[in-house]
Amino acid sequence: MANTVMCKKLGKELPALDFAPMPGEKGQEILGSISKEAWGMWLKHQTMLINEKRLNLMDPDTQKYLLAQMDKFFADEDYETAEGYVPPSDKS
What pLDDT, on a 0 to 100 scale, did the predictor assign at position 83? Predict the structure, then answer.
């Protein structure tokens, strides 16, 4: 049986990530509290932010921005979306 975590983002017990998605304490925190499903949701959102805002991943300020947005995303705080973005479920 696969490992599970009580997912902080989705609020239920779900399959866990197979390994920490980044090094250090932050990676271990994510591994222990974020599900594969929620991590996949974040990766899609992060890709949208990078593309729509034309972010340079080599810029340390961009890296700090994305980490801050990730923290807000998983905590269900007010995180940024691409300007004019309408979630698929809200389209008519």
Answer: 76
